[in-house]
Design a protein that fits this description.
Blueprint (H helix, E strand, L loop, with lengths): L2 E4 L4 H12 L5 E4 L4 H9 L7 E3 L4 E3 L3 H6 L5
Parallel strand pairs: 1-2
Antiparallel strand pairs: 1-3, 3-4
Length: 75
Amino acid sequence: MVTVYTTNNCAQCFTTKLALKKRGIAFEQVDITNNIAMQEKLKSRGHRSMPVVVTDTDEWAGFLPHKINAIGGDE
């Protein structure tokens, strides 16, 4: 399972979701624009930019094509 935490008007969020779709990778999108608690939780895990992408084995912040390419299409 892939979860993408996003915010409004985030170019990197849009690009990340587009890249996942192009690779056929299913994902859940969670908009945290107005969710301060979730924003703080992600910050406490070391993330300072958006989107935050969480897979079964990895997590990162920002648009990272090499990480997206490493995800199997059947997650």
